[in-house]
């Protein structure tokens, strides 16, 4: 029962995230403008905004003008719902669950904006950093020194990779990792980075193999960082222990 409630909560949050993903790069307000159809501008009623369900019932078309909506809305809603459910399965009821939910929501917004525009917005990163620092100071961990070292080390490492690959990483990626450091602390940001490089390597190869991207196309690294960060906040501590107890023994 709780599973279902968490899934629905995630999809409702996901519905708000699609608005953020669409409007933030265009400098539109995410709070004051009511939701409206992008084709006919009709203001959408609460009934039209029920995640997934309204999309399925209306077969992905606007009720008023009949033009198709992007399936993006339903995709982001579903992904958010499933990631929230996954987090709940691992973290359970605890104050950390709220932290993971907020972390995940920011990761989704950053991932989709980066995918669409090859851009990680400074204003999103600033909010992401501010909220993370506030939560960590409130809960007392990671400790403030840990946060600062992680931000500098993570950002520094990516700066190094950026210089090495001559622009394979953008400035946005470097700042993104620094903020992930603030959220995760040293150990978990290292896990996140390692995972991002592994998944990015495999993912990049697959994109080339299936010709989704050409050899000269730019593949944004932000989404891979986001995946690494999500796995790290859920499993990072376990991975570090597993490493210390088996590989480094
Ligand atoms: Zn319409």
Keywords:
single chain, 8 helices, 70% helix, protease, multifunctional enzyme, methyltransferase activity, transmembrane
Q: So what's the overall shape? A: globular
Q: Into which percentage range does the β-strand content fall?
A: under 5%
Q: What proportion of the residues is helical, as a percent range?
A: 55-70%
Number of DSSP-assigned strands: 0
Tell me about the biggest sheet?
none
In total, the number of domains comes to 2
- SSE order, one letter for each helix or strand: HHHHHHHH
Helix tally equals 8
Please mark out the parts with pLDDT under 50 across 5 or more consecutive residues, or reply none: none
| Average pLDDT over all residues | 90
Structural class assignment: mainly alpha
Q: What is the straight-line distance between the termini? A: 42 Å
Describe the structure.
By secondary structure, this protein is mainly alpha-helical. The protein has 2 domains: about 1-95, no CATH class; about 120-249, no CATH class. The chain has 8 helices and no strands. The chain has helices at about 1-25, 55, 70-90, 95-115, 120-140, 145-165, 170-210, 220-245. The longest helix is centred in the last third of the chain and has 39 residues, at about 170-210. It is globular and about 65 Å long. The mean pLDDT is about 90. Zinc ion (ZN) binds next to loops. Zinc ion binds near residues 37, 40, 65 and 67. Its EC number is 2.1.1.-, 3.4.23.43. It comes from Sporomusa ovata. This is Prepilin leader peptidase/N-methyltransferase. It is a multi-pass membrane protein. It catalyses: Typically cleaves a -Gly-|-Phe- bond to release an N-terminal, basic peptide of 5-8 residues from type IV prepilin, and then N-methylates the new N-terminal amino group, the methyl donor being S-adenosyl-L-methionine.
